[in-house]
Specification:
Elements: H1 2-21, E1 24-38, E2 53-67, E3 72-83, E4 91-102, E5 106-113, E6 146-155, E7 158-165, E8 185-186, E9 192-193, E10 203-212, E11 215-225, E12 230-236, E13 239-246, E14 248-259, E15 263-273, E16 279-290, E17 299-309, E18 323-332, E19 340-348, E20 354-363, E21 368-378, E22 394-402
Parallel strand pairs: 8-13, 9-13
Antiparallel strand pairs: 1-2, 1-22, 2-3, 3-4, 4-5, 5-6, 6-7, 7-10, 10-11, 11-14, 12-13, 14-15, 15-16, 16-17, 17-18, 18-19, 19-20, 20-21, 21-22
C-alpha cells in the first residue's frame, strides 16, 4: 500500500506539472452503476445474513492526458464501490495510475495498471499479473490495480513483454457474515507470506507473443508471490480462523488460439512450482460461430472446453476446475442496442458438481446500459470447494451510466 500511495502522489504531481508545462489534450470519461442482487435461498451457514435483496453502487471515472502528439500518456482510473450490506465490499481501489511512453517499436509503462493474458472462456490459467478483486464477483474476472514497470518491444516475429512488479496486493474477501463467504472467519488483516519481504517482495514476469498465419501463441513466465492464497486454519481461543498464506511460486504458461473459417480453437496451460509438488493445469476447447442464424443478422457462438488440474490441495489452493467440462452458448443480436447473451455451465465429472453462469446486457440509450447476471450452483458435492456457499445462488441487475 505504501508503494501505491507513493506512485499516486508522484503521478498526480506529474499531472499537475504537465498540465501547465506541456501542450496536450485532456479527456474525461468513465461510468457509474447502481446494482441489486437477489439471493433466493437461505444461506447454508445459519449465522450469515439472509440478505434477499442487496444494493450497491460504483463510480469509475477515467482521466487521460496526452502530449507530444500522443507519444506520452498519463491515465488515472480510480474505482469505488459502496455496498449497503457487506462492509468489506465497500472499498476503494486504483485500477490505473500510469505513464505510458510510445517509442519506435517499443513502449514503456510505469505506475499502476491492469494486464490481461488468456484466450479461453471458462477460466484464465495464465492470467497472473493482477490480483483478483474477490468481493466484486465470484467469477474472478475483476482485478485490482497492480504497481508495475512494463516494457514491450515489438519485433517482426512478435512482441516481448517484461514486467517488474513491486508492491503485492492481497486478495479481497467478503465480510464474515455476508453471503458468498464460508462459515469460518478469514483474517485478512494479518496475511502470511513465504517471502521475508512480505508484500514488499518484487515479483517479475516475461511474455513472448507470436503470430504464425492463423495461429497466435504466447509463452510466459512469472516468478514471485502467488496471487492465489492458501487458507490455513488455526485456533484462537475456541474459534477457528482462516489466515491467507501467500507462497513464492514460479509459473510458466502457454496460450494459443487457431482461427479457422467459423471456429476458434483455444488452449491454455500452466506448470507451477512452489506449492507442494510441481503441478500442471490445462484448459482446451473451441468456439464455433453460426453467422446470420435463421436468416437474421444475429450470430450464435457454441463453446466447449475441458479443464484439468492435478494440484495437491494439501499444499496448493484448491481448484474449482480440476476435472470439468464447460459448455456454453453466446448470442450476439447485432442490433442497434448491442444486445448480447452468454449462458454457460461447467460440470465436474468426478463429483458431479455444477456451476451455471448467465450474462446478458442491452444498451438502452447512448449513455445507459442494463445488464443481468446470474450465478447458480447445482448439486454441490460435500468435497467441493463451493460446498460452503452452495445456497448462495443469486441474480444481479445492474444499470450502468457511461459519461
Amino acid at each position: 500500500m505504501r508503494v501505491c500511495l507513493m506512485l499516486l502522489s508522484i503521478m498526480l504531481g506529474s499531472l499537475l506539472w504537465l498540465s501547465s508545462a506541456q501542450a496536450g489534450e485532456w479527456d474525461f470519461s468513465g461510468k457509474s452503476s447502481l446494482q441489486t442482487r437477489y439471493f433466493p435461498y437461505d444461506p447454508a451457514t445459519p449465522a450469515h445474513q439472509k440478505m434477499r435483496p442487496t444494493f450497491s453502487g460504483t463510480l469509475e471515472p477515467e482521466l487521460l492526458y496526452e502530449f507530444d502528439d500522443g507519444d506520452n500518456r498519463l491515465s488515472f482510473t480510480p474505482f469505488v464501490r459502496l455496498d449497503g450490506n457487506d462492509k468489506k465490499r465497500t472499498h476503494f481501489d486504483i485500477r490505473e495510475l500510469s505513464w505510458l511512453h510510445l517509442g519506435n517499436n517499443w513502449d514503456l509503462s510505469i505506475g499502476i495498471n491492469k494486464v490481461f493474458w488468456g484466450v479461453t472462456e471458462s477460466v484464465h490459467l495464465v492470467d497472473i499479473i493482477n490480483q483478483t478483486d474477490g468481493v466484486e464477483d465470484i467469477t474472478g474476472e475483476d482485478k485490482l490495480g497492480q504497481p508495475m514497470i512494463n516494457l514491450n518491444v515489438e519485433r517482426i516475429w512478435g512482441t516481448i513483454s517484461l514486467f517488474a512488479l513491486p508492491g503485492f496486493r492481497p486478495r479481497t474477501f467478503h465480510s464474515h457474515f455476508a453471503r458468498l463467504n464460508g462459515p469460518l472467519l478469514i483474517d485478512t488483516g494479518t496475511p502470511v507470506y513465504a517471502s521475508r519481504q512480505g508484500n514488499r517482495h518484487v515479483d517479475w514476469a516475461a511474455r513472448i507473443s507470436m503470430t504464425f498465419g492463423d495461429m497466435d501463441i504466447a509463452l510466459s513466465h512469472f516468478q514471485g508471490t502467488s496471487r492465489e492464497p492458501r487458507l490455513l486454519a488455526s485456533l484462537r481461543g475456541l474459534r477457528t480462523i482462516l489466515t491467507p498464506y501467500y507462497d513464492q511460486i514460479g509459473q510458466t504458461g502457454l496460450e494459443s488460439q487457431l482461427t479457422t473459417a467459423n471456429t476458434l480453437w483455444k488452449f491454455e496451460g500452466i506448470t507451477r512450482a512452489g506449492q507442494g509438488k510441481r503441478f500442471y493445469a490445462t484448459v482446451t476447447g473451441f468456439e464455433h460461430t453460426l453467422y446470420g442464424v435463421f436468416g437474421s443478422v444475429a450470430d450464435i457462438g457454441l463453446l466447449m472446453e475441458y479443464l484439468y488440474d492435478n494440484r495437491d490441495a494439501r499444499f496448493a489452493p484448491p481448484s474449482l476446475a480440476d476435472h470439468d467440462v464447460f459448455a456454453g452458448i453466446r448470442l450476439a443480436m447485432n442490433d442497434t442496442q448491442d444486445s448480447t447473451l452468454l449462458l454457460g455451465g461447467s460440470w465436474d465429472h468426478h463429483n458431479r458438481t455444477g456451476f451455471v453462469n448467465l450474462e446478458a446486457e442491452r444498451r438502452m440509450t447512448d449513455h445507459l446500459k442494463l445488464s443481468l447476471n446470474g450465478r447458480f450452483f447445482v448439486h454441490v458435492a460435500n468435497t467441493d470447494p463451493l460446498h460452503a456457499i452452495r445456497n448462495d445462488d443469486f441474480v444481479e441487475l445492474t444499470l450502468n451510466w457511461f459519461f
